[in-house]
Structure formats: structure tokens, C-alpha cells
Design brief:
Largest sheet: 2 strands, parallel
Order of helices and strands: HHHHHHHEHHHHHHEHH
Shape: globular
Strand order of the largest sheet: 1-2
Strand content: under 5%
Radius of gyration: 20 Å
Structural class: mainly alpha
Helix content: 40-55%
């Protein structure tokens, strides 16, 4: 593997032969976008005690606001004509690519987080779809290097489902622009960060039931990323809402479990869990419920083999891409959204 493509001072520990073996084992998979949620866990937890788990949860709760999109992002999406549709297609592609390339779920959730944070920092110009695709490819490339033991090549990442084809040099320049905008802060707190923390409370469940619960929670969280309405809620709130819906599907009573888990939440967060839960319950009936609004049509989901046609992709050459547009008027310096997000949440409560 060409080490020049690595960022963040990474060290590639395997030799070329072993790296080639890793890629030879990476077999492409066909992806049903919200169904391929095989459990990644083996029934064991990283956390040895309940106390360790609770300490980790408190740390995540303290940090999660600093990894959310900039304030006003949801409103910006609502006012945009095409961007909600572009974002929806980009998230679809990330979900499918995660499955096709056998990447971890953490890689997908990180990549989606990078995408939303980056777009939220650049609300000053009209986004084109090729721009969103380029950022999405860079997000997945960076997230896979950060999360997975072996990372697909840029060629592998671009093999399917894209309208445009980018040169490797263009993607690397986009990676660097993305990293600089994010302040090189890649270890983000996402909804998926809470899955193991929350499910540690259910270690007494039978193995198959625990796996079923994990799979259903993950499926709901994938759908939640597609739904831009949920971007205004903290990741912990969305994660608990997904768990609540999943428990309602699998066991008779979930209220006691949810009450125990939300003991670390303030009243406003508990209220948000109820609101999120209502949205997610509608998603259990129809995974695309209320997503057919502006820019989010069913037409992106092929209904029959007749609609699955190969399209000629448009080549974008490095000399055609001017990334200075992302540096001219960045909304805020990375890291400043901690205070701003807190103020935004307080303002929203008063309204």
C-alpha cells in the first residue's frame, strides 16, 4: 500500500504481502441498505464492570456536543433546495459502501459525522452534487483508516454507486481540507458509540436475544442517520430512543430499563428521548417514513431489476477542482461548537 495516502501520522504495520492478503479477503457484498446489520459483537464486552461502563458513558455524555454539527445546520438543510437530497443520497452510499467493503459500523457512523460536521461549517455557497460525493469519498476513506485494521484503496471505495469519478490526488487534497476543517478531531462520539455502553445493561439476556437486540438497535440507528430531523438531538438521546423502540419490539415491558438508563439524563434530555421515540416508532412500521419530503424520494431505491441500470460516470479531473472555496468563508473554527452548541440547546429550550 502506498503510505503517501495515509494521513494523521499513521503507521502501516503490515508488510505488502500481508496487506495484499487482507484485501484479497475483502469480498464485495450486495447490500440491502437497512437490512444488512449483522451483529459485530461476540457477546463479550470491552468493559469489565458496570462501574467502568458508567464512567465511560459519563465521558461520552460530556464530549458528545463537541462532535455535533454546527448550530443552525438543521435549519440550513430545511431552507436548502437540493442539499437535503444530496445528503440523503450520500448517506445511502455510505451505508451501502460499508457493507460492500466489509467495514465496521463505527466507520460508517464516523464518516457520516464527518460529512455533517463539514457541511455545517460551509453553509455559505450553493452545494453541487459532485462536491457532496467528493466529500463523502474523503470521509469514508479517512474513517476507514481511523477505525478499521485494513483500509480499502481509493479505487475500491469508488467502484460502485457514484455519479462521478475522482482522481486519487483530488481525493487526497479533499482529505486534507476535511481534516483541517474538523481540526483533526476524528475520534467522535456518535449514536453508535453508545451501543455497547447501553447493551452492557442487558448482559443477563440470552445470547440470541442480546444479538437480536443489538441488530435491531443498529438498524434503527442507521435509519436515524438518514433522517435529517434527528440531527438536532444529541447522539445519546437518539441511541436511547433506538434502544427503547427495540426493547418494545422484543420484550413485554421496557419502561423500567429505560428509566434506569436515563438516570444520567437531565429532564430536557428525557423529554427529547420521548420525541425521538415517537419518530423511531414510525420508522419501525416504514423505514422511509417521513423521508419522502423535499429531496428524499423513493426513486433512489430501485424497485425492480429493470431500474438497476449502469450509468456512465462523469470523470472529474484534479485540475477542475478548486478546494479554496472551502477555505474562504468557513463558518467557525473547529472546536468552537462546544460552547455554541450548548447555547443553541439552551435557546431551543426557551423557545
Amino acid at each position: 500500500m502506498n503510505t503517501e495516502s495515509l494521513l494523521c501520522d499513521e503507521l502501516w504495520l503490515s508488510d505488502p504481502a500481508s496487506t495484499a492478503d487482507c484485501y484479497s479477503d475483502r469480498k464485495p457484498k450486495q447490500c440491502n441498505i437497512l437490512e444488512s446489520c449483522e451483529c459485530e459483537c461476540d457477546g463479550t464486552s470491552f468493559y469489565k464492570t458496570k462501574e467502568e461502563c458508567e464512567e465511560a458513558t459519563v465521558i461520552c455524555l460530556d464530549k458528545e456536543l463537541s462532535y455535533m454539527p454546527e448550530p443552525g445546520y438543521v435549519e440550513y438543510l430545511d431552507k436548502s433546495n437540493n442539499l437535503p437530497h444530496f445528503r440523503f443520497r450520500a448517506i445511502q452510499w455510505l451505508i451501502k459502501s460499508r457493507s460492500r467493503l466489509n467495514l465496521s459500523f463505527g466507520t460508517f457512523f464516523n464518516a457520516a459525522n464527518y460529512l455533517d460536521r463539514f457541511i455545517s461549517m460551509h453553509q455559505f455557497h450553493e452545494w453541487k452534487y459532485w462536491m457532496v460525493e467528493l466529500v463523502s469519498v474523503a470521509c469514508l476513506s479517512i474513517a476507514s483508516k481511523f477505525n478499521d485494521t485494513s483500509s480499502p484503496s481509493l479505487h475500491e471505495i469508488q467502484m460502485e454507486e457514484l455519479d462521478y469519478s475522482f482522481q486519487s490526488s483530488t481525493i487526497r487534497r479533499m482529505e486534507l481540507t476535511l481534516l483541517q476543517s474538523l481540526g483533526w478531531r476524528l475520534g467522535c462520539i456518535t449514536t453508535y458509540s453508545y451501543v455497547e455502553l447501553l447493551l452492557t445493561n442487558f448482559d443477563s439476556f440470552e445470547f440470541h436475544l442480546h444479538n437480536e437486540l443489538t441488530t435491531l438497535v443498529t438498524k434503527l440507528l442507521l435509519g436515524a442517520v438518514l433522517d435529517a430531523r434527528l440531527l438536532k438531538y444529541q447522539p445519546s438521546v437518539v441511541a436511547v430512543s433506538a434502544l427503547w423502540c427495540s426493547l418494545d419490539e422484543l420484550i413485554a415491558s421496557s419502561c423500567a430499563h429505560i428509566a434506569f438508563i436515563t438516570r444520567l439524563f437531565n429532564q430536557e434530555q428525557k423529554d427529547d428521548v420521548v420525541k425521538c421515540n415517537m419518530i423511531m416508532k414510525s420508522r419501525l412500521v416504514d423505514p422511509l417514513s417521513n423521508l419522502i419530503g423535499r429531496g428524499q424520494p423513493y426513486s433512489n431505491w430501485p424497485s425492480s431489476p429493470v431500474t438497476v441500470l449502469l450509468r456512465e460516470r462523469i470523470d472529474i479531473y484534479d485540475c477542475q477542482v478548486d478546494l479554496s472555496i472551502f477555505n474562504q468563508m468557513q463558518m467557525q473554527m473547529p472546536g468552537s461548537n462546544v460552547t455554541n452548541n450548548l447555547e443553541s440547546f439552551k435557546k431551543r429550550r426557551k423557545e
